[in-house]
Structures are given as structure tokens and as C-alpha cells.
Amino acid sequence: MHFNDLIWHGLKVRAIVRILPMLVLPKIDYLGFMKKTITLFFILLTIPFYSQWVEQVSGVTEPLNDVYCIAQEVVVVVGNAGTILKTTDGGAHWNQKMSGTTRDLIKVQFVNANTGFALGANGSVLKTIDGGENWFAVNNGGDTNFYNCGLSSVSENVIYICSDYWIKKSTDGGANFEYVNFPLDQNIENLQFLDEQIGYASGPNTLWKTMNGGTTWTLITSAYSIGAFFFLDADTGFIYTMSNGIYKTTDGGATFLYVGYSEGQVQDLFALNENVIWEINGIFLLCGCPPAYCVTKTDIMASPQNQQITNCDVGGELDVELNAIHFASDTKGYMVGYASYTGTMGPAVVIGAIYKNTTGTMLDVSKAATNDAVIIYPNPASDQIIVSFTEQVNQPFSVEITNCLGEKVFSKSYQSESAATIEVASFSKGIYFVIIVRQEKRLVQKVVIE
Fold first, then answer.
1. What average pLDDT does the segment 222-251 reach?
2. Partner residues linked to 437 by β-bridges
3. CA 39, CA 385: separation in Å to the nearest integer?
4. Is the pLDDT of residue 200 over 50?
5. Which of 215, 217, 180, 213 is nearest to 202 (CA)?
6. Which residues pair with 191 in a beta bridge?
7. How confident is the model at residue 28 (pLDDT cuts 50, 70, 90)?
């Protein structure tokens, strides 16, 4: 890939530009190179950014694990090695705060503009009473790892935390924690309380509900393999099932209605109202390829062709792992994770990734007029699909198709064709992932076979 080709790869160039001042470039006209690079950078600013997710400058290299919007312009992020970041200007500047720990921080929540809690590895529980400016440790009475469960802050006084096999509750702002009753044979994977009494918890294949602060629990469903879930209130919520996708309840779990299929495994789920759901999806394939992380917006009230929009190319040329998503309003939200690049175009790039959306909308990257866009049609298909490129240049590429279980059902390399026709009549009905590799770039698109 020539340097001029980077015009079409804005995120990678921005990452390189950020670290250029730190490089030592012997026998190179550094000022001249910088002038050309800066010129290129401003050219990039004129290119449409189709995804509506704009990269922020985090200033850290640690992976970022969770984000919470206190207000539209005030946001707190936590990450590995005790990393805490805060912005008060909507992401224009991110300031690192002292956490007092080097342990990884996994979850963060605020109950109001001043009081918040963070949960981390080996029993770490942190608290702030000044909006995230200063943090101090509270003692939960143990050192159990919290990687597999979470935090649910109800008020300044009531906090629930959980690990694999137990839930603890504090009613005095974290000064003291007590065990909460829970079925002993259940491995707890997720936890959310709506108030001091009503809460939900999930196991590998179950969803439980309490109406009395955890004293007793009722099994809501064991019909699905439950992943992430999110409730707006005591009655309205969404659950992700690993086999079928997203379901919705409006009666506290008494009944569930199907919303739509989700690509891959949902890492995080968030909704601001009963019609719009945001997901972070991790597509883990068995082909030996790196996992693809996507962000999906589902709008139940939108037209059928626009009800679900997915972007698997947020990071551009960077390899991105997305961990959490949170919105302050219908139009302002943030995602966090980890982005890296190790290739031939410049030095390695490693950053704690933050992306911001200021419109509440998202265009499908596959519909954007990019230089290397792939078109797959018809979709849905029954007899055959055609994979073609909007740039009609004959270049080697490969196509691999996997089913929802990650099992490879098709694989072929093409040397000089500008398109590929693939027979799919023998495929079972269902959803498949088409992985195209061309010019060292990997694209994943969903195809429905009917």
C-alpha cells in the first residue's frame, strides 16, 4: 500500500500523526515530511465520516473497559491499570484522574452528578463524591475478582456488587457490605437493580428477578442462553440470547417478544427508550481470523430496511476491541475499548480507544461510497450470491463463509477477478458471515440464506 492510499484510511493516519513528534527519523527531511503529513491530515477532514462514530484522543495506551455519561458533556471512563479518565467538554479534552490503584477497573456508574462507584480486579471498589475528580477505596470485605459480573448503583447509599457465585449489598454508601441470598447452584454473569428492591440477575441459561432486595429470587426464564441484558425500568427491558438475538419484555419478564437477530456475541447492551437499542457485538470466528467488533443500532419503529444497522469498521485500519457503550441522550453517546496497529505503514500504534456519536444515528458502512466497498447481492439469497467491489480493479482477494456457529462452509481465493459468484443453494437456511480479505483489509458482512 502506497502512502497516498492512506487518504482513504483516516483513523490510521490520525494515529500515526499523533505519535510522529515522538519519533527519531534520521536522514529524513522531518519538517518536510511533517508538512506533507499535516496537509494529508486536513484532506482527511474533508472526507465524509460515514459511521457517525468519531475517534477521541484518550491520551492513554491502556485498554478501556467501561464508560458512563454523567451529563451530555461530562463523561467518565475506566480501564486497565487503574485508569480513570474524565471529560467536561464532551470529549475535546480527556483528563486522567488518580485512582489510587494499579488494578484493572471494569465497571463505573454514577447515581448523581457527584457520587459514583467503580469496580475492579481483586475486590477493588472505588468511590467518588465530587463527580469523579477524586477517588478513594471502600472495603467490600474480600478480594474476589469481579471480571465476570458487575456493579449496580441504586443511590448514594445502596450499592450491589457481584462475583461468580455471590451478590453483596451496601446500604451505607460502601462503608459495609453484606451477602445477599442467591440460588447456590447458579453462576452469576450479570446484575442490574432498578431500585433498592427490584433487581435482575442472569446465569448462563437463566434470568432471575427479586422484588425484595435479594431476599428471594424468582426464575423468569430458562428458555434461552442469556448473555447481556438491560432494563429501562422494573417492567421494560431487553435480553440478548446467544441463539436467537434480542428479545423485549414490557411486563417485567412475564413474556418476551422477539426484536431481531444480533451478529456475533453481544458484549454490551444499552437502551435509552423502549424502541432504540445499541449493542456492541464481538464476532468470534473459528477460522483463525482476529475477532471483529461491531456496533449495532436497532430501531424498532424504523422502516424494515433500516431497523437494524451495523458498523464493523469503526476503527478503520486500526484493530479495535469494543467493550462498553453508554448514551447521555438520544443524540450523544460514547463507546470505549482498545485499538492497535502493527503493520508496515509506520510504527506500532496502541491506544485506549474512545469513540463519540453526536447524532444518535449511524449509516451502514456497507452502504457508504468508500474506495474499497464490497457489494454482496442478492441478500437474502437462495441460489447464489455475488461478491463484487465498487472499485473495478482486478486484485487478488479471498472469500470465506461461516455459519452462526463459526463453522466454515466455503473458502476460495481469487487472483484476477473483479467479482465472485458463489453457489449457496446447498446451504441450510439461516444467517451466514461472509469474510472478504483484500489488500490486507478484512471485511465481514452478514448474508441471509432462505
1. 89
2. 398, 442
3. 41
4. yes
5. 217
6. 201
7. very low
Instruction: Say how far apart CA 423 and CA 116 lie, in whole Å.
Output: 55
**pLDDT digits 0-9 by tens, 103-133:** 999 999 999 999 999 998 877 899 999 999 9
Q: What are phi and psi of 256, to 5 degrees?
A: -130, 140
Report the distance separating Cα 436 and Cα 232, nearest Å: 38
Q: What is the pTM of this model?
A: 0.71
Which cell goes with 240? 440478548
Would you call 99 helix, strand, or coil by DSSP?
Answer: coil
Q: What is the mean pLDDT of residues 36-64?
A: 61
Q: Is the pLDDT of residue 14 over 60?
A: no
> What are the beta bridge partners of residue 95?
86
Residue matched to cell numbers 518536510: 32
**302 contacts: CB under 8 Å, gap ≥ 6:** none
- Helix and strand tally (H, E) in the chain? 2, 35
The residues, ordered by sequence, that sit 6+ positions from 28 with a Cβ below 8 Å of its Cβ are none
Return left, alpha or beta for 113; rule: phi > 0 is left, psi -120 to 50 is alpha, else beta: alpha
Q: Would you state the pLDDT for residue 20?
A: 37
Q: Is the pLDDT of residue 298 over 60?
A: yes
Residue that wins the pLDDT comparison between 418 and 146: 418
Q: Which of 417, 432, 328 is nearest to 380 (CA)?
A: 432
SS3 39: helix
Which residue's C-alpha cell is 452502504? Answer: 367
Q: Which residues pair with 339 in a beta bridge?
A: 320, 351
Q: Report the side by side order of strands in the sheet with 441-449.
A: 408-414, 397-403, 430-438, 441-449
